[in-house]
Amino acid sequence: MEGIRFMIDYKDLLERVVSTFIQSCAGMLAVDQIATMNVAEWKLVLGAGAASAISVLKGYLAARFTGDNSCSLLSGKNRDHELANMYGEE
């Protein structure tokens, strides 16, 4: 990977981390109400924070090793180029 500039789209990473935190909190609090786990709410939010921390790690590693500046594990293609070829605009 010599000569390849390493960059992370931090806005993408932040969006993924925040949405992971909100979804984890909502899911844990909802399940606690249904299953009556008798766990303090702050412990559930702490668990959601741990999920967000793992999301940061996954996003960083994905951006580092996929090479397309995305925090996704799936390698993206240049879709604009494909559409231009499809419609004969290139």
Question: Can you offer a commentary on this structure?
Answer:
- With 90 residues, the chain is mostly helical.
- It has one domain (10-86).
- The protein is built from 3 helices and no strands.
- The mean pLDDT is 79.
Q: Count up the domains.
A: 1
Helical residues, percent: 55-70%
> Mean pLDDT score, rounded?
79
Order of helices and strands: HHH
Largest sheet: none
What is the percentage of strand-forming residues? Answer: under 5%
| SS field, number of helical segments | 3
Cα Rg: 19 Å
Give the overall shape, derived from the CA principal axes.
Answer: elongated
* CA(first)-CA(last) distance: 30 Å
Which spans have pLDDT < 50 for at least 5 consecutive residues? none
In a nutshell, what does this entry contain?
By secondary structure, the chain is mainly alpha-helical. Helix content is about 65%, strand content about 0%.
Task: Give a topology summary.
Blueprint: H1 10-35, H2 41-66, H3 79-86
Helix pairs in contact: 1-2
Please describe the structure with a list of short key phrases separated by commas or semicolons.
3 helices, mainly alpha, 90 residues, 67% helix
